[in-house]
Amino acid sequence: MSTQIIRPARSLQGSLTVPGDKSISHRYAMLAGLAEGTTRLINFSTGADPHSSLACMEALGASVLHNPDGTIEITGVTGTFRQPAAALDCGNSGSTMRMLSGLIASHPHTFTLVGDPSLTLRPMERIRSPLIQMGANIDLTDGHAPVAIHGTPLHAIDFTTPIPSAQVKTAVLFAGLQADGTTSLSESILTRDHTEHALLAFGATLTRTSSRGSQPARLSIPGGQRLKAVDATIPGDISSAAFFLCAALLFPDSNLVLDSLGMNPTRAALLDVIAALGGRIKILAVEEHHGELIGTIQVNCAPDHRALSPFIISSPLTAQLIDELPVLAAIAPYTANGLIIRDAQELRIKESDRIALVAKNLRAMGAVFTERHDGLEIPGNQSLHGASIDSGSDHRIAMAFAIAALRATGDSEILDAESAAISFPEFFTSLDSLALR
């Protein structure tokens, strides 16, 4: 286990390109593995999680080539996965386990999906339930991994998501792509739409109907479709960029430029929150790749910003910001008037109980706040001191409190700091290059 010492900084200056988006990397890896032909991906995520998806594709018969220039080429199985020789190891990746279950459920083999101890504690019934409705044969252990899938033909369903979850939506759409009939899915709270863009990029037919009045947004996907390989550039991960966007709020003279950043509207709500908390954001360039927006932005702190009341994050915004909430909470004590997070009970069943760990580490740094079952209420205008930070081996907690430590009095130590490699192996190097001390 590694420990990272974070010394206070006096500013944040420079430019940065963050690794490729994890969510998009997962989806492109899986669809490329199923497709016909060779997909070439530029800026694939360097995080460990998407590479678990790549390894699973190889185990299922796809060919994965890591080129010296950093591109990845995936030659797919043309619609027919093979029987893997061993269990499919999803590592720490809930995205891999949940989405892959939908992708392979109709293939005539027996699959076992396993993961590390953290992943084994995360709920899997949420994807088993709709897939069972489609005719899948899936066994869990007390609602958790290992996941045993006995491949069988699937039929279409009309499904309404009971919780806002892009992973559940993806599992159903991936299964529907290969089912008999047209599968429809409705969600009352819109989740990130990377799956829809990825399916369209690989040549699938997919129809989308926007919400109207009380009618939720609806997706329909005909079954029996074949996918074709693509060449694609993956945008920079805005959830990784969130740590640096929040760091820029901490210093009056900060100036940060983020290049090639994913600006998908279902993810870019973060930019609105950064602005509400005192950030000044300028979009310098933007273009589209396979339905995904990629842009360059500049962010700095508005020194005259004075909030009149705490900023409130609640449903549906909570669902859109679920990955960014830990770092927003970690810097909340430094903001002008604080932050209230509600409807975030999903954080308690991530890689860790993120609400509890945020609370533990804020307390260690001397913050005053209130912990709720579904969130936190954190007053602003506080001063924190350095502390020993328990990351719980959770990558987002480790990185969130590395950012909070930049404004603290005295050094902080981040325990189990190597967990950052799950999503952002270059994080501490990048942070050190931008922090002026």
The first-level CATH class name of the largest domain: Alpha Beta
CATH architect. name of the largest domain: Alpha-beta prism
Strand order of the largest sheet: 16-17-15-2-24
Q: State mean pLDDT (0 to 100 scale).
A: 95
The radius of gyration over CA amounts to 21 Å
Approximate strand percentage:
25-35%
- Tell me the helix content: 25-40%
CATH superfamily of the largest domain: Enolpyruvate transferase domain
How many separate helices?
14
* Main sheet makeup: 5 strands, mixed
- Domain unit count: 2
Describe the global form. globular
CATH topology of the largest domain: UDP-n-acetylglucosamine1-carboxyvinyl-transferase, Chain
Through-space gap between termini: 27 Å
Strand runs, count = 24
Structural class: alpha/beta
